[in-house]
Automatic annotation (TrEMBL):
GO terms for biological process: D-gluconate metabolic process. Pathway: Carbohydrate acid metabolism. This is Gluconokinase. Keywords: ATP-binding, Gluconate utilization, Kinase, Nucleotide-binding, Transferase. Its EC number is 2.7.1.12. Belongs to the gluconokinase GntK/GntV family. It comes from Mycobacterium syngnathidarum. It catalyses: D-gluconate + ATP = 6-phospho-D-gluconate + ADP + H(+). GO terms for molecular function: ATP binding; gluconokinase activity. CDD domains: GntK (cd02021).
Amino acid sequence: MGSPVVVMGVSGSGKSTVGAALAQRMRVPFADADDFHPSANIAKMSAGHALDDDDRFPWLESIGQWLADHHAGGVMSCSALKHKYRDQLRQHCPGVIFLYLSGSVEVIRRRQASRPGHFMPAALLDSQFATLEPLGPDEVGIAIDVDQSIDAIVDEYMAQIDTDTTEQENR
């Protein structure tokens, strides 16, 4: 099957939609990190307050455990905004690959406006972009622009992974 994939990015970037489509294409299990939040985190975000690292630690531990349990393949949608959060996930599953859904504030704001009722209010988008640390050169992953169709994003990811795998096998 391969390594598990974390579809990451700010709220409204399409993590859940892309993650579900990617998991279906790869025929592996899918999980949404939002489902791993304790009720206190959801209440805090619903009230318009950003989570802090203390709030995120146990949540990331649960996600890391899911990745470890699916080390042979699975897709998790998770913001994973900071390098240290991704490091925490890698401690559980060193082979995880990150698919970073990148996009401008304008594109993401437009996407967020189309999902009323989500517990993450659009007002927190600026704090998400302030927190975001894009993938570093030391991280295994791919950045893909979200301003295209879900199928195009999944196709691009699959093509890049196939290319990377072929290059590694030919070394």
